[in-house]
Amino acid sequence: MASVQTEAQPIVDKSRALDWLRQMLLIRRFEERAEMLYQKGNKIGGFFHQYSGQEPVAVGSIGVLREDDWVITAYRDHGHALALGMTARSGMAELLGKVTGCSKGKGGSMHFFDAAKGMMGGHAIVGSHIPLAAGFAFASKYRGEDRVALCYLGDGAINQGGVHEALNMAALWKLPVIYIVENNLYAMGTSLARSSSHQDLTIRCATPYGIPGHRIDGNDIELMARTTLEAVDHARSGEGPSFIEALTYRHKGHSISDPGKYRLRDELDTYMKNDPIIRYESVLKERGWIDDEAFEAMREEVKAEIEEAIEFAEKSENPPLEAVYEDITVAPFIPQE
Amino acid sequence: MAVFSFREALNQAMSEEMERDDSVFLMGEEVAEYDGAYKVSQGMLKRFGPRRVIDTPISEEGFAGIGIGAAMVGLRPIIEFMTFSFSLVAIDQIVNNAANMRYMSGGQFSVPIVFRGSSGMAGCLGATHSHRLEAWYAQIPGLTVVLPATPADAKGLLKTAIRSDDPVVFIEHEVLYPDKGEIPDGEHLVPFGKAEIKRPGADVSLITYSRSLKATLAAAEELAAKGIEAEVIDLRTIRPLDIDTLVRSVSKTHRAVIVEEDWPYCGLGAGISDRITREIFDELDAPILRVASGDAPIPYNKHLEASMLPSVPRILAAVDEVVYR
């Protein structure tokens, strides 16, 4: 597989590259600290899915979008929200269920929303959000706009029927939507080899619909950006959808309660050694865009930002009990009790 | 007032709203080139073109979701299910995405969408094509559920549904499509959450909706001949329920029979009976009875199917029980 991170002419300039590195560090730190709050403080409840190890997929692809484009993803959604520029404060407050959270404490870990940033939600029924992305793209085309929708899904989701209904209609109507499968090799504990008739997912999701399919190393952030940009240009110019299979790996289990015993120690070790953040740090050091001192300063800054976000979240209020009946409908809601 | 059929009323509602607002469009199976499986959208492709009247593949989950996505970013889709029986394969979209989106996002998104289509026991269609799913949808906070019984209400309620900023499940009854009735001239809107007293009476309240209104009115006619004045109430909207009108009526008659084509167990009538009982238990002179379909899948054979429907004799028998005759 090609690597573009070492190309003579990178897709990004120094300042953008440093932003991306910082965003990846922010996501990693956010996840690490949130997990600690979950495990030790009993402050976060419900299901919690870590994004650690997959950061280049979200950061590299969202990095080439316009501000008025849309992003939608599944339940492993913290990374995408932060990559869109949603604050760590509102993410952390949501995890703690506070009224200052990005979904006012009504969504939780799996349902991060930020309309102003184009974050159209984390969605927790596997495959259910795939048609929604086609719907955003439908609206763009209906109104004669050139906005695009970026939709992330897991390798498990491609086995849901509605995904293929949406892919077919998106291709049929040339909708400006880009589907990115974050192939981390496991649908919860079921490996791809045990669940997919083909290991190359473009054969299942691009070829049958006659749309461009890209199978890439998703942990090469600049390759991720370059490939997404190609798909975005394709969509903006009215040529319709694309499908990107981004090969990646999650460092943690499926969720916080999963020790990941179905994975071999060697496999995990190999991926951990090949940590994508360290990879990109090395690339940027080779280019002379960052040195040890600046990198350390960046890490400290990110740490402080996350600690401040935790403090903000902890000091925030719980929603009042009346909030149970708020934001159900636009019209005044009449409980049928 | 001019006379139109139920299907013409629906067509007028959609056409008028599409004329008024470019963000409204119609999407579904056979709605465009075929002119509608039940001819509800007849002529609309010709009038509005393929941008706004859109044929889909047979992919209910997919196009329901596309509609919801489009609604989240400002369009006002009308999604037609050829029949609501087929909405079963799209129910995840309706419940998890349309109904929950506003809540889960802390009020950041609204989903102004209408899901509409035919429903009910329509004659020898068998178990898969005769579903009445209104009670399922009525249970979901976030949805508005509407079932018109007359052409005038079909038009007025559908126009209100299209203008609603919230998701609406708009269930038509297949056998009502050819029915004719007067429709008020000019702009005709019917508000949600308001039942209508179709026939006033002091002796017993007959509470119904959709196609069952016809059998209920016929039963009321026979009751009048026997000296019993039944008050017939057409719910029109089942979520939110117009509990005030029901409470007023039953406070006057002290007796109620609920007539519904749906299954009896955990059905809409059970919920309505519970609410009336809790609100005005002391006013009741008899238990509230329900005339619903039998608790069986819907059979193909027409005699068996007919036995499942709330019929005039079944309604009369229930009234006899509550008035102790």
Structure characterization notes:
The complex is a heterodimer of chains A (337) and B (325). Chain A has 337 residues and is an alpha/beta fold. Chain A has one domain: Rossmann fold, CATH 3.40.50. Helix content of chain A is 42%, strand content 11%. Chain A has twelve helices and eight strands. Chain A has helices at 14-41, 55-62, 78-83, 88-95, 130-142, 161-172, 192-195, 202-205, 221-236, 265-273, 276-286, 292-315; strands spanning 70-73, 119-122, 149-154, 177-183, 186-187, 190-191, 213-217, 242-247. In chain A, the strands form two sheets. In chain A, strands 2-1-3-4-8-7 form a six-stranded parallel β-sheet, with helices on both faces. Chain A has a two-stranded antiparallel sheet with strand order 5-6. In chain A, helix 1 (14-41) packs antiparallel against helix 11 (276-286) and helix 4 (88-95) packs across helix 12. Chain A is globular and about 50 Å long. Chain B is α/β, with parallel strands linked by helices. Chain B folds into two domains: 2-183, 3-Layer(aba) Sandwich (Rossmann fold), CATH 3.40.50; 196-322, Rossmann fold, CATH 3.40.50. In chain B, strand 13 (256-259), helix 10 (268-280) and strand 14 form a beta-alpha-beta unit. The radius of gyration of chain B is 20 Å and the shape is globular. In chain B, strands 3-2-4-5-7-6-12 form a seven-stranded mixed β-sheet, sandwiched between helices. Chain B has a five-stranded mixed β-sheet with strand order 9-11-10-13-14, sandwiched between helices. Chain B has a two-stranded antiparallel ribbon with strand order 1-8. In chain B, helix 1 (6-20) runs parallel beside helix 7 and helix 3 (60-72) runs parallel beside helix 4 (91-99). Chains A and B meet through helix 5 and helix 6 of A and helix 3, helix 4 and helix 5 of B.
